[in-house]
């Protein structure tokens, strides 16, 4: 039942040789490059921002990092436990993006970008979480459109991301304050010179 649905959705979304070249190129950009918003935002939120918001931003960064670590660990375990071939590895559909024929479920890209979006939705602002969720959906669409993932790979990434965020909230409630103080001490030691120069926030 699920495999039939997976195949039907894939056939509906997957590009073909008749698809517009500009749309395929746009999908390649979305599939490969939009994921870079994750490290850029994490670094920027930790290092810069209004003084009265820095603590809040760093709490968000730490929780997001924990959620990503948990989500990617769960994703790896699921991939090893329930291996699933990519569409092109099974000779199904059309592939427009070079990719190793490793296991596809759940999607690593989907896991990362959905975890990131959900983290902002839960712990930042509704508007930022919604904007990132739209980006996450675009990444999910692009990777199915280009033939490197099944639709249910992306649903798996979303569910694993949700699990990562929920688990992180439990961890944060237990030891978040102590972890924050420790990481701030490490940061101030390692970045003493840039902090003193005023290049980054204390």
From TrEMBL:
Record CDD domains: PAP2_BcrC_like
Catalytic activity reported: di-trans,octa-cis-undecaprenyl diphosphate + H2O = di-trans,octa-cis-undecaprenyl phosphate + phosphate + H(+)
Gene3D superfamilies noted in UniProt: Phosphatidic acid phosphatase type 2/haloperoxidase (1.20.144.10)
Keyword Ubl conjugation: no
Keywords assigned by UniProt, alphabetized: Hydrolase, Membrane, Transmembrane, Transmembrane helix
Origin superkingdom: Bacteria
UniProt xrefs under SUPFAM superfamilies: Acid phosphatase/Vanadium-dependent haloperoxidase
Location of the Phosphatidic acid phosphatase type 2/haloperoxidase domain: 61-169
Originating organism: Atlantibacter subterraneus
GO MF annotation, one: undecaprenyl-diphosphatase activity
Listed EC numbers: 3.6.1.27
Protein name: undecaprenyl-diphosphate phosphatase
Enzymatic class: hydrolase
Recorded name of the encoding gene: ybjG
Transmembrane regions listed in the UniProt entry: 20-48, 60-78, 103-123, 130-148, 154-180
């Amino acid at each position: 039942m699920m495999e039939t649905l997976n195949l039907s959705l894939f056939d509906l979304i997957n590009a073909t040789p008749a698809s517009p070249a500009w749309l395929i190129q746009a999908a390649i950009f979305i599939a490969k490059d939009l994921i870079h918003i994750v490290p850029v935002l994490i670094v920027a939120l930790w290092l810069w921002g209004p003084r009265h918001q820095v603590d809040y931003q760093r709490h968000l960064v730490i929780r997001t990092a924990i959620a990503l670590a948990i989500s990617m660990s769960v994703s790896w375990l699921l991939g090893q436990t329930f291996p699933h071939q990519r569409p092109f590895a099974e000779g199904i559909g059309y592939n427009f993006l070079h990719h190793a024929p490793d296991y596809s479920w759940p999607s690593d890209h989907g896991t990362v970008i959905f975890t990131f979006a959900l983290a902002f939705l839960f712990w930042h602002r509704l508007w930022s979480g919604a904007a990132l969720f739209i980006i996450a959906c675009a990444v999910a669409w692009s990777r199915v459109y280009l033939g490197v993932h099944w639709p249910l790979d992306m649903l798996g990434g979303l569910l694993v991301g949700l699990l990562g965020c929920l688990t992180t909230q439990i961890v944060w409630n237990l030891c978040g304050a102590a972890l924050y103080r420790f990481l701030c001490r490490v940061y101030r030691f390692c970045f003493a010179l840039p902090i003193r120069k005023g290049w980054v926030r204390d």
